[in-house]
Amino acid sequence: MKGSIFAAIALGAADASAHYIFQQLQVGGTKYPLWQGVRQHTNYNSPVTDLSSADLRCNVGGGRGSGTQTVSVRAGDSVTFFSDVAVYHQGPTSLYMSKAPGSAADYDGSGQWFKIYDWGPTITGSGASWKLDSSYTANIPSCIPDGEYLLRIQSLGIHNPWPAGIPQFYISCAQIKVTGGGSANPSPAVSIPGAFKETDPGYTANIYNNLRSYTVPGPSVFTCGAGNTNPGNPPVTPPQTTLATTTRVPNPTTVPAPGGCSVARYGQCGGNGYTGCTTCASGSTCSRTNDWYSQCV
Asked: Among 9, 105, 156, 187, which is 20 to 30 Å from 259 by CA?
């Protein structure tokens, strides 16, 4: 099993643009301030990479939310996660939920999780296009029981292909209280960690090698059906922008440095067709993953 890659909280200005953080929530037409309703983890904008770690649930330092407000959501309403900068690593984004046995603020996510939405790729003859955006909107299933839940967003960056590289999980959890729901028993349900394996096709996929099909890791998406109480209308998600991507990962991690430039930790520093900076910031070195991608680690 590949080990975890964790950065210190204060990585400095050079790392400020290295990745992205899901830090803001909107419920219906109400957009809450930063970290209100979203657990503020201690992992800054770094990924989680260890598939056996409990940090895969709500990120490093996100195991409890006693200082986080729990936001009311009516079953069937839309919810939106916002990130500080647009997601730019190619890969799927998913939304999961887990019902707390009591208070969401006291819940560590060790129970069962079900998936409510996937943003996978659109694959055509010219390649794959991913939704790379700064907001992700979906609807809370109208048939799930009332109660307090963790609502988890997960962006899986597969720009650093396994097994030579390590895919990266970017995660945040919101605390919500669902009202006006039904009595469905959402399935399939999974444990986290445990839901993702090194053998999953969506984990091992190589986006640089003629990608023609893709299966998002984890369980299938739960939807309300005829056998559920209060199934309501099918979810209606506001239009989302899907940006076409190429085999060269954007390089927003280059920052000025005395006498030249440097690339922040986890940023791209080389590869075929790459024209950006190749000098890594202090404390990291440029490591070649394949002919198309090298990364500061």
From this structure: 9
Q: How far apart are the first and last CA of the chain?
A: 18
- The DSSP element (H or E) to which 209 belongs, if any, is none
Q: Comparing C-alpha atoms, which of 283, 292, 44 is closest to residue 165?
A: 292
In degrees, rounded to 5, the angle at the alpha carbon of residue 39 between the alpha carbons of residues 177 and 221 is 60
Buried b (16+ CB within 10 A) or exposed e, 246-263: ebbbbbbbbbeeeeeebb
User: Which of 154, 149, 204 lies closest to 181 in space, CA to CA?
Assistant: 149
Q: What is the dihedral of CA 179, 183, 186, 187, to 10 degrees?
A: 180
How many CB atoms are located within 10 Å of the residue 85 CB?
14
**Nearest partner of 297 among 87, 52, 51, 18, judged by Cα:** 18
Helices (H), the chain: 55-58, 201-204
Confidence label for 270 from pLDDT (cuts 50, 70 and 90): confident
pLDDT tens track for 223-243: 998 555 444 334 434 434 333
For residue 235, the one-letter residue type is P
Residues of the chain by 3-state class (helix, strand, coil), percent to 5: 5, 30, 65
What is the value of pTM for the model shown? 0.76
Q: Write down the pLDDT at residue 269.
A: 78
Instruction: Tell me how crowded residue 230 is: count the other CB atoms within 10 A of its CB.
Output: 16
